[in-house]
Write a structure and sequence with these properties.
alpha+beta, 3-stranded mixed beta sheet, two-stranded antiparallel ribbon, 5 strands, 27% helix
């Protein structure tokens, strides 16, 4: 099932922007990190998680980044949010105009 969300969040780091990456010293290897899961299972902190920690410390609520999933094209994007809720600065609201996702089981 596909869901739509309304997102009102800032600041969001735009990892698709070369200038923003350069200003914060973000390398593509910080983003790609193909073996992040194996690193975490081995007790190491992957570069992608180190980057997330650095961005959180700098006040960013999320990051816009291209998808590195297998088969994804370079123009497919993910919005990664670290904390969100129903209030600013990181408000995320499910758009469910028909109430299909809000109904309780058996209702």
């Amino acid at each position: 099932m596909l869901c739509a969300y309304e997102v009102d969040a800032e600041p969001v780091f735009d990892a698709t922007n070369k200038i923003e990456r350069r200003l914060l010293g973000v390398q593509m290897s910080d983003l790609e990190c193909p073996d992040w899961e194996a690193q975490m299972l081995a007790g190491a902190l992957p570069a992608s998680q180190e980057l997330a920690n650095r961005l959180i410390s700098s006040g960013f609520v999320g990051m816009l980044v291209r998808s590195f999933a297998a088969g994804a094209c370079g123009n497919e994007l993910n919005l990664v949010m670290w904390q969100w809720g129903d209030k600013l600065p990181a408000r995320v609201r499910l758009i469910d105009d028909e109430g299909r996702l809000s109904r309780r089981q058996g209702a």
